[in-house]
Amino acid sequence: MAAASMMPIFSQNVSSKSDLVPDWTRQEVSTGTTIMAVEYDGGVVVGADSRTTTGAYIANRVTDKLTRIHDRIYCCRSGSAADTQAIAEVVSYQLGFHSIELDEPPLVETAAHLFRASCYRYREELMAGILVAGWDRRKGGQVYCVPIGGMLVRQPVSVGGSGSSYIYGYMDSNYKPGLSKDQCLDLTAKALALAMERDGSSGGVVRLATISEKGVERRVLLGDQLPKFSTH
Amino acid sequence: MEKHFTDSRVKGVSTGTTILAAVFDGGVVIGSDSRASMGGEFVSSKTINKVIQVHDRIFCCMAGSLADAQAVTKTAKFQLSFHSVQMENPPLVIAAASVLKELCYNNKDELQAGFITAGWDKKKGPQVYVVSLGGMLISQPVTIGGSGSTYIYGYVDAKYKVNMTREECLQFATNALALAMGRDNVSGGVVNLVVITEAGAEHIVIPGDKLPTFSDE
């Protein structure tokens, strides 16, 4: 599981206007971010922060990085905003078509493989780290990690984005198999809040979603509702 | 700990280590892993001691190049013992930290080393100071450093409380170092801890098989 570091490395050269145009207009838009997904018995919890940056400027402070791919399959996006939006649209289309052909809801594993196919084939051009999570009838709640480079691995809990490095220790010590849905929500909210405190490219609000047989429940934790830790 | 980089573009590269210091009620715990690696591919020592004693109740840990660490701490040790003789009193922890800070700040172009200094003195009790790469000196109740530290910022922020007991603080430090060693491939080996109180300094070594394990291991 790679901790994807979301620093924009592509910049356009606008040589003649370089003094008149602010720095951030020449930086690629990046979702330097923290994303997390956790499996529980009966579904998955996904979460993300809400900051999109172009260099030092926060282009969108209320971004929704939890993108619907199908009724009960969501993806968490980190990396280049353009790349991840494009891939998510392509996979949504492919999965929708596949689901109609099959005449039944698609499997999370299928969605994950479609993401991996795009991310691996175009690995040189893309900068995308994606968590695919959802519920299907065959295997219940599943989380698949497709980091930069195009690997695919299923994990019970996974984090991604630039802020994820700071919360590996927290996640390792606090995750146990067999957590309930509310415990998973609590774990995700706390982990994201900790990462947002330490990572300059993550911040804003915490967006959470629960996906289960019953459907998708979304919620947002605003500034004053974020978990707090004893500051020192 | 990696080779010394003189190229200023790679200044600020943290080296293969995890170091930590935390204040508890009545003392301070300072600790580190024990791995020395070359380039992240070869472990040159499995049991190196990165917690260096600069005075009876003052220890420091460093993140950076091993050569710089040895040179700076040797100088600091000498200056501190001289200072202690002049003052006719054990040196203050802030004095030790300031000595390191002067060396780091005045030689910032050549050196690539950051220090955590922890100790106990009669004036302020247990303290932890961190001297960063450029020579900034600040006091914090808990601080972490080295390449493995990125993975435990969340854990430390969540778990550290002021006025813990000695046992709680030891458990906290052991867990934090074990978690970092579990994720950082250039940190590892055993956990070296030193507990410093008014009574003195106690070394604790926790070998690999006695380290705490977490649910995914």
From TrEMBL, chain A:
Role description: The proteasome is a multicatalytic proteinase complex which is characterized by its ability to cleave peptides with Arg, Phe, Tyr, Leu, and Glu adjacent to the leaving group at neutral or slightly basic pH. The proteasome has an ATP-dependent proteolytic activity. This subunit is involved in antigen processing to generate class I binding peptides. Component of the proteasome, a multicatalytic proteinase complex which is characterized by its ability to cleave peptides with Arg, Phe, Tyr, Leu, and Glu adjacent to the leaving group at neutral or slightly basic pH. The proteasome has an ATP-dependent proteolytic activity.
Primary location: cytoplasm
Subunit structure: Component of the proteasome complex. The 26S proteasome consists of a 20S proteasome core and two 19S regulatory subunits. The 20S proteasome core is composed of 28 subunits that are arranged in four stacked rings, resulting in a barrel-shaped structure. The two end rings are each formed by seven alpha subunits, and the two central rings are each formed by seven beta subunits. The catalytic chamber with the active sites is on the inside of the barrel. Component of the immunoproteasome, where it displaces the equivalent housekeeping subunit PSMB6.
Alphabetical list of CDD domains matching this protein: proteasome_beta_type_6
Keyword Nucleus: yes
Family per similarity comment: Belongs to the peptidase T1B family.
GO cellular component: cytoplasm; nucleus; proteasome core complex
Compartments, as annotated in UniProt: Cytoplasm; Nucleus
Active-site residue list: T33
Highest taxon, organism lineage: Eukaryota
GO BP terms: immune system process; proteolysis involved in protein catabolic process
Protein name, per record: Proteasome subunit beta
Molecular function via GO: threonine-type endopeptidase activity
From TrEMBL, chain B:
Subcellular location: Nucleus
Catalytic activity reported: Cleavage of peptide bonds with very broad specificity
Pfam families hit by this protein: Proteasome
The UniProt record lists the keyword Cytoplasm: yes
EC class name: hydrolase
Predominant localisation class: nucleus
Database matches in Gene3D superfamilies: Glutamine Phosphoribosylpyrophosphate, subunit 1, domain 1
Gene Ontology cellular-component annotations: cytoplasm; nucleus; proteasome core complex, beta-subunit complex
Xref: CDD domains: proteasome_beta_type_6
Keyword Cytoplasm: yes
EC numbers: 3.4.25.1
Example of a GO biological process term: proteolysis involved in protein catabolic process
InterPro entries for the chain: Ntn_hydrolases_N, Pept_T1A_subB, Proteasome_sua/b, Proteasome_suB-type
Record-level Gene Ontology MF annotations: threonine-type endopeptidase activity
PROSITE patterns in alphabetical order: PROTEASOME_BETA_2 (PS51476)
Keywords on record: Cytoplasm, Hydrolase, Protease, Proteasome, Threonine protease
Active site location: T17
Function summary: The proteasome is a multicatalytic proteinase complex which is characterized by its ability to cleave peptides with Arg, Phe, Tyr, Leu, and Glu adjacent to the leaving group at neutral or slightly basic pH. The proteasome has an ATP-dependent proteolytic activity. This subunit is involved in antigen processing to generate class I binding peptides.
Subunit structure: The 26S proteasome consists of a 20S proteasome core and two 19S regulatory subunits. The 20S proteasome core is composed of 28 subunits that are arranged in four stacked rings, resulting in a barrel-shaped structure. The two end rings are each formed by seven alpha subunits, and the two central rings are each formed by seven beta subunits. The catalytic chamber with the active sites is on the inside of the barrel.
Name listed for the protein in its UniProt record: proteasome endopeptidase complex
Originating organism: Oryzias melastigma
